[in-house]
Design goal:
It is built from six helices and 41 strands. It is mainly beta. The longest helix has 18 residues. It is elongated and about 110 Å long.
């Protein structure tokens, strides 16, 4: 009996030995360098081993049939081998380096980010309201970045030789149709939005994503806050108005409301009439914004609305009239924006949204009247799939609808109607491909069709990025961009084509230890620009798309917040070489809004003993071209250079209260933006002129900011 039992045990052990199989191989990287310490095992078992210093591994298993062999190693992508166990011998497995979202390459050509969590961030959200001279306007803060031009009589964004109409603004991915307040000629305007409602800003000076179109030069993307950190009430009191805001949170829902009133009567009383303006009624505006958010387990819903009412009544000097010319304006703007995002299984997400805007203007020019209204809407659906941390795909479609109607009534009570309606459809697809932590690319294409112009345009987009070291990287971008002609032309002629610009951008960026260095070389080629044969667009002008041009230059940005204790500063410089033949230009020339050199220096210093932050901002622009009919040539003269020194002081009263004081154009420099010449020469054959000097170029305000936190955790010291 004992002999029989021993025989059974012997046969069982022999069977186990004969049932074992050896799994072996070598683990290397893509360059055949051995990887030590990789974990190799069969899925669902304890059978496995680690690779040695030469990358070799070997272990035995009793498993049979089809199995999955898994290889894992920190900083590398997991590797899977599926097949019969008998084939898992003498394997050579190459592991690919995993893409690290924190330290890997990022696509940055042409784009500046403003957000605390962005790797490409060069501005923080608080910079929008603490930069001297910005006075809480995000556009004024962005004008301290390279690639922008300060056009002090306008106030909007002029980017790399492009007009203000070539930049589009989006909130949560949806178009804002009238992002700036209405104003008079040669009177600077401001953005309609409060920076406190937004978590981040992406400002692209060129080569932007295929998701966005109808912008020849740049796009500004504003993203509202997803989930506010705490309930709070904000009270601001300024020398020309005030504001009140409140955020309420209940569960996963929240509501933020912000309203403000502005009356420039105290300021306008100080403006001498010798600057070419007399105020009959001061500029006055009332505005409000609200953001509702509802966060689900896998979804986010947002509803944004903003309204603005403004009016002014002024008299402006005109060299062709003996007396001042009266100009009156009443503007009403109402904007709605809603977006919904849902996260599905398997890394799919779907984003949908809609925006609509109503804008009306009642304009009086002496005895003539202009009434116009524009109703515009935007519908958008986008899907995104993350296949892995190396590859994702997004695609979508959108539709824009615009209805524009204008009635002009002259002194004889004759009415002239100008209007148009357009439906513009667009589709886009784009993919981010990360080949390694050092190399990535973005491939995209966009197609758009306008029912008004009856044409279809296809726009390819490409961006590449290479990271040779830990802190620096190179980026390259190319793209074609199309834009429908603006309303001041389309209301007279609907037979035109879309204008075109092609962007070529080479970028280098270095970020390390509180220091950011960025430089960019670009070339922008214009085609199909609108031309007309009159001084201004009018019903009997001859229009064409025969215009063209170019813009090229170099941008430099440097920011340092570590080298000197308590000091944060940045410097930007732009060199711009541009010419274009458009509008009523008789030949290619540099337009008036495009100086060759622009520079900005922004400093912020914290004085601990005084509980204060003191800031200075200096902006410089070389002389701007203008046309002098007394001399030969076109646009051959230049104004004197633009200089602006601004000061900002913020005093921390306690953890919830800040008193601040700001002065723009501290030295009260007389910055001439252009010259107006008489239509006819005097008896000596000379065309007389007057300088155009915006009256609002110098500005100051005193403010008080008070945050009442419901949980007592508000800390304004952290903000400063």
């Amino acid at each position: 009996m004992k002999t029989f039992i021993k025989l059974v045990i012997l046969l069982f052990c022999a069977g186990a030995v004969f049932g074992q199989q050896t799994i072996s191989g070598k683990i290397t990287d893509t360059k055949n360098n051995p990887i030590e310490g990789a974990n190799i095992y069969l899925e669902g078992t304890y059978d496995g081993a680690s690779s040695d210093k030469d990358g070799n591994f070997s272990f035995e298993t009793t498993e049979e049939g089809t199995q999955i062999l898994i290889v894992s190693m920190l900083s590398y992508e997991p590797h899977y081998e599926a097949g019969d166990v008998s084939y898992f011998q003498n394997l050579h497995i190459k592991l690919m380096e995993s893409v690290n979202s924190l330290t890997g390459v990022t696509l940055t050509a042409g784009t500046f980010e403003a957000g605390n969590n962005s790797k490409a961030s060069v501005l923080k959200p608080l910079d929008i309201v603490t930069t001297a001279g910005a006075t809480g306007d995000f556009v004024a803060a962005l004008q301290t970045l390279p690639g922008t031009t300060t056009v002090n009589e306008d106030g909007r964004l002029f980017v790399r030789g492009g007009t203000a109409g070539e930049t589009q603004v989006f909130i949560d991915g949806l178009r804002v149709f009238q992002p700036f307040n209405a104003t008079a000629n040669n009177m600077p305007t401001r953005g309609r939005f409060s920076p406190f409602l937004f978590k981040g800003i992406s400002f692209s000076t060129g080569g932007y994503s295929a998701e966005y179109g109808q912008a020849l030069s740049s796009v500004l993307l504003l993203n509202t806050t997803d989930v506010p950190l705490q309930e709070q009430t904000e009270i601001s009191i300024m020398s020309v108005g005030g504001g009140l805001g409140h955020t309420k949170i209940w569960g996963d829902q929240s509501l933020s409301i912000n309203t403000s009133y502005m009356n420039l009567a105290p300021y306008e009383a100080l403006i001498p009439s010798t600057q070419g303006v007399r105020w009959k009624s001061p500029y006055e505006s009332i505005s409000g914004e609200a953001v509702f958010r509802s966060k689900g387990e896998k979804s986010m819903f947002k509803l944004y609305t903003g309204f603005n009412h403004s009016n002014l009544d002024i008299e402006q000097e005109d060299i062709n009239f003996d007396d001042f010319v009266r100009f009156g304006l009443k503007n009403n703007n109402l904007y709605f924006n809603s977006s919904y995002k849902y996260y599905f299984e398997n890394d799919w997400s779907l984003t949908s949204g809609a925006s609509i805007a109503w804008d009306t203007n009642k304009i009086g020019i002496e005895d003539d009247k202009v009434d116009n209204k524009e109703t515009s809407s935007h519908l958008k659906v986008k899907a995104r799939k993350n296949f892995s941390n190396r590859y994702d795909l997004s695609f979508g479609t959108e539709y824009f609808h615009t209805n524009y109607d204008e009635t002009y009534t002259d002194v004889n009570i004759d009415e002239f109607d100008n209007n148009y309606t357009d439906g513009l459809w667009a589709g886009f697809a784009e993919s981010d491909i990360y080949l390694s932590n050092k190399f990535a690319m973005k491939l995209g294409v966009r197609g758009a069709h306008s029912s008004l112009l009856d044409e279809f345009k296809l726009s390819p987009r490409l961006s590449l990025a290479y990271k040779p070291g830990e802190s620096g990287q190179f980026s390259l971008a190319y793209g074609d961009f199309y834009q429908r002609p603006l309303s001041d032309v389309l209301k007279f002629d609907e037979s035109l084509s879309m204008e075109k610009a092609s962007h070529y951008i080479l970028n280098y960026q270095y970020i390390n230890n509180g220091k950011t260095f960025r430089t960019e070389v670009y070339h922008k080629a214009y085609g199909q620009l609108v031309k007309y044969d009159s001084e201004m667009p009018q019903f009997d002008s001859a229009y064409s798309n025969s215009g063209d041009g170019y813009a090229q230059g170099v941008d430099v940005f440097w920011r340092d917040s570590k080298s000197i204790e308590n000091l944060d500063y940045w410097f930007s410089y732009s060199y711009l070489d541009t010419e274009r033949d458009y509008q009523n230009f008789p030949e290619r020339a540099t337009p008036n809004f495009a100086p060759k050199h622009n520079a900005s220096l922004v400093t912020k210093y914290w004085v601990d003993k005084l509980r204060s932050q003191v800031g200075l901002s200096y902006s410089y622009g070389s002389g701007r071209p203008y046309h002098n009919p007394n001399n030969p040539g076109f646009m051959q003269e230049k104004t004197k250079s633009y200089n602006n020194l601004s000061f900002n002081w913020a005093y921390l009263i306690d953890q919830q209260k800040i008193l601040y004081f700001s002065v723009s154009n501290l030295l009260s420099l007389n910055n001439v933006s252009n010259y107006q010449y008489a239509n006819t020469p005097d008896v000596g054959g000379v065309y007389n002129r007057r300088a155009i000097t915006p009256p609002a170029d110098s500005f100051f305000f005193v403010g008080f900011f008070w945050t009442i936190s419901t949980d007592g955790k508000s800390n304004q010291l952290d903000n400063l």
